[in-house]
Amino acid sequence: MIGLQNAHGELWKALYYYRYVRPRASRLPGIKESSIVDSLRFSSKLSKWLDDESLVKRGKGTNWKRQYKLRHNWTQGSCAISEIEVAEQPSFPPLLVFMHESVVFMADSSDGLRAWSSRGERKELARIALPGVKPGSAPNPPTSIAVDAGSAATDDPLVVVGFQDGSYSMYKFHHPEGRFTHRYSHAPSTNGILSAVAVSLPYLLTMTATQLLSLYSVSVDVESPPRLLYSLKSHTVWPPLSLSIRSSAQYITAAIAYALPTYLSGWTVGMQEMRLTMDGELIVSRLASAIDQHFRPLTFSLNPSSVLPTPPQTPHPDSEESETRQIHSKPSTISYTHPYLLVSHPDNTLTLYLVSSTSTTLSISSGSRLWGHTSSVSGAHIGGKGKAVSVSTRGNELRIWDLEGGFTSSASRRRLATGAMSVQIRPGTPNKFENDFEPVTEVMGGRSTGLRLALEHNVDDLTATRGWIGFDEESVIVLKEKGEGSQALVVYDFT
Asked: In angstroms, how far is CA 387 from the centroid of its own chain?
């Protein structure tokens, strides 16, 4: 019996590789759909190469049938939907949300810092009051939140909350015990509101409303005060923006991606990057932008009807007036996970940029326009492996994007032209995963431009998003506001 189970698992493993790993391998630079790809076999080495090493866990087998089903549901946009009510009244400033390793962290003035599970019972795991938020005291609401980006392998991630007075506090979240512990609070600053934070131990990156970018060194045990390493003052950084910290074997890279207004070209994106040694010594600080006067979205060279239907009263997408409006609209959100920089716009579109960062150069490619939404895009988030999720302002349309490889190859352009770059999330769609070994030639994904209201799927009157969206391997979570002002996290479960 054990032998049969193992054989069954190996069959699902091979099918998973053929359906989902091999296509990704063929899109990597230097590898073409040839005998080289045909000779590839699923292995721990290949899995790590494709950033899927979590599927091959030491001492723990992967349920390959479940994994195949999960990926199948993602490509179809098929999921169940539920909601978690998190606030009875609207908060000001808006409730802050951050998703990390199946835990959703929230912070606001009334309920403090909370942690909710996005899986299983989806219950509140822990909460702690925030400093300075007390009856009778001067208002000092939280304005930014981040979780240690390097804590995927630990049950005790570090959570950082920034405040209106420029201060910030650090907390350890002890997942197994279901509690927070306060570790450190930084004094208020005269530099203004702390508008964004990012943390990847042993580094912390902060950005103020007065455009002051600061990089700190943080002790791993967070017992001693952070040490300020560098501060950079800017006069060109406009919201929205995205902070990131990533590390390699040789150095640490801290970056800020931001909206950048230009005199002739309207809005584009810019980036400031600092590269440091592992000891915190600055190697280089550099700037880049995506300004290109001759930039034309890739989709304008395609048949517009295959990308987004144009209402009769709307100018044809090839017209100069339409192109100008689409290129120059101000971004509504920016999400940066190297090398992908994804920008959402109020004109129903997104723009994808590819960032190239080497030891000698930093550059941002010309943007490629992404069509598919039928209303203003209020939020977008890009995760690992080039997967992204976006949501419309009214909360009635969500799309999953497969952006891996960008648009540098002819295969990627074909995927964009046929609509295979994205699929619309369809809550409540019956799961078509019926036949254990359905043909591998079945078309993955699909595309639809019709509006799918959440009201159609037995969810309360959740009508507007608050601009936040996050996802992990199993679910997408969106912060929405009900008609009476209360707020809820809507969970789209792909398991």
From this structure: 8
